[in-house]
Structures are given as structure tokens and as C-alpha cells.
Specification:
Length: 280
Amino acid sequence: MIAPIVREKAALREMIIPWKRAGEVVGVVPTMGALHDGHLSLVAAAKAVCDRVIVTIFVNPKQFNNPDDLANYPRTETADAQKLERFEVDAIWVPDGDQMYPEGFATTVSVSGLTDCLCGAARPGHFDGVATVVSKLFLQTQADKAFFGEKDFQQLQVVTRMAADLDIPIDVIGCPTIREEDGLAMSSRNLLLSDRARVYAPVLNEVMERMAVALRGGASMKDLMPDALKRLETAGFTGVDYLELRSADGLGLLERADVPSRLFAAAWLAGVRLIDNIAV
Ligand code: AMP
């Protein structure tokens, strides 16, 4: 069954009213489309525990700090709807820019602290865009549960904080990162990699896994960074936005893995920005 594609807020609201009235558990899976198995794992998680599932597809201009990045972001709505067919979701919510940000739109949701580092520092304004759109998606869908990937671990933390701070009655659920067989974290941006760049892209995860083993053995980031950066450079990565060890709770910068921690990286390969993070 192809799920109904809903493009108007009023139609979405109409659809949801009887679900809420019947006390059904509504789940939402926010995405920017170009769906892959990582997104679909969130849909499966939602289907497992919700009566109704809404998948949202919206390439949110407010979270892009680079106009070329926004223009080049893959858009594959027809294929996305086909991929969702077997999950029998209840609606695909595909608002356009005017539905989301009508003339005169003037509100920004901004989460402080957690957003100062990592992608927040590398992409100014990014998390304001994320927090703003996700708070709107939560209110539009009136979902009881929302499903986010650990692939974007900082985003998961930011969205969890935002929902708690704004008293939005929703359970934010984190789901594990789905990877290609060679370890590359699945991402819509992988579609933008040339064949050659795709061969070297898994080196990011390889380097991180190698660092994680050493960190678990007591090594310090200072000891590990030179070799890690060299390996990335040799594989063709042209810039590293960050490669940092941070606490899993609160994202405080660490030199050694002496508390539950994660290793975070963002790096550029042939003009494509890849991110990854792993538990240490
Ligand atoms: P995006 O379309 O990239 O904004 O991602 C939409 C949701 O899918 C976010 O919650 C992401 O964290 C999640 N996601 C993206 N890639 C993966 C992956 N490889 N594994 C699990 N979740 C993912």
C-alpha cells in the first residue's frame, strides 16, 4: 500500500484527529528524504511500538548554512514513497516551504550549551534550524513517540533537550546507526560521493574504530590524533571539522575515555561532508 502523501497542514490535522480521539499511539520519523536503510530502521522501530506512523520528508532550509549544500541535497520523493510501501505507514508528511515557514514566520527555537560544539560549532545556525523544524513537526503530528538515529548523536541530544524544555509530551527514542558492509554509516549524502570517493569513505569509520580500541586501552586523544589525521589525509580527506572524544551524557570534551564516551568525527571527502560517531 502506498501511504497517503499529505502536503497541507489542514489535511494532516484532519487525519490525526480520529487517531488521537481513539487513544492510538502516534509515532513520527522525521527525515529529509533520500531514504536508505538507516531511515527505514527508524520506521521499523516506530511500527513495532506505535499504532500509527507518520514519516516526514522535508529538506529544511533553516538547518543548512551553505546554499550549495542545500541545492545539492538529494531529493527522491517517488523512490522514497516506494521504499516506505512495505512498512504500511499511515502518512508521509511532505510540507513545502510555505507550509512550514509561511510569510512572516519569525520564531526560532534555540537550545544552548549542547549546541556549542561539534556540528554546532562547525555549522553555525544548524541546530537552531533543527530545533525549530523538529518542534514544529512534533506539534504538527501530535506524535507520542519520535524516532531519531544515533548517527546524528548530537541532534538526538538537542531534540531530547528541546522537547523536555518546551514540555512537548513526546518520547524521543534513539536508534542505532545502520552501516554499509564496509562500515560506512549510511547517509543520504553518500549518494553524492563519486565512485572513487566511495571506495575511501569507509576509512573514516576504520580510523575511528582503531582509535576507540586504543582509547578503551587507556590511550589519550593527544597520542592518537597525529596518526588518525595522517590516515584520513592519505585516504583523500581534505579537511576534518572535528575528531573529538566527548562524554555521551552532556558532550563534555575528554582527553581519555574515563567516563561513558563517544568519539565524534566530521570530515570532507571530495566535497562531501561525512559524519560519524561511535561509543567508546
Ligand atoms: P536525515 O534525513 O539525514 O535528516 O535523517 C533523518 C533521521 O534518520 C535522523 O534521525 C537520522 O539520525 C537518522 N539516520 C540517518 N542515517 C542513519 C543511519 N545510518 N542509521 C540510523 N539512523 C540514521
